[in-house]
Amino acid sequence: MRYELTIALKPDLAPDKSKKTIGEIEEAVQKLGGKTTQTESLGMKSLAYSIKGISQASFGRFQLEIGPDKIRDLRRQLEREEGIIRVLVIKGGAIVK
Questions:
Q1: Is the whole model's pTM more than 0.85, yes or no?
Q2: How close are the terminal C-alpha atoms of the chain, in Å?
């Protein structure tokens, strides 16, 4: 099944830690039997409201193919990551260019 995953990373996260987190997400998807078909960095953006006292975040978007029974496990795993402040999963997502 196809999903679109969007994550918000803490703004003070070092660039190398940010890349490491993205690699860990792709690895987690693979371990759950899925694959990442596209990864996109959306850059730093101001938030409409503060999340945990943070008013800006760096965003990343992933196109995934993963079983519906595994997406819940992936979401739980990502929500426990220290550098990630928000996780959004949309079923059937596709990037329009």
A1: yes
A2: 21
**DSSP states along the chain:** -EEEEEEEE-TT--HHHHHHHHHHHHHHHHHTT-EEEEEEEEEEEEEEEEETTEEEEEEEEEEEE--HHHHHHHHHHHHT-TTEEEEEEEET-----
Q: Please tell me the distance from the alpha carbon of residue 31 to that of residue 93, in angstroms, as a whole number.
A: 21
Chain-centre distance for alpha carbon 4: 9
| pLDDT tens readout for residues 37-64 | 999 999 999 999 999 899 999 999 999 9
Q: Which amino acid is residue 19, in one-letter code?
A: K
- Which residues are 43's β-sheet partners? 59
d(CA 82, CA 23): 15
Q: Which domains does the chain have, with CATH numbers?
A: 1-33+67-97 (3.30.70.60)
Nearest-Å Rg of the Cα atoms of the chain is 13
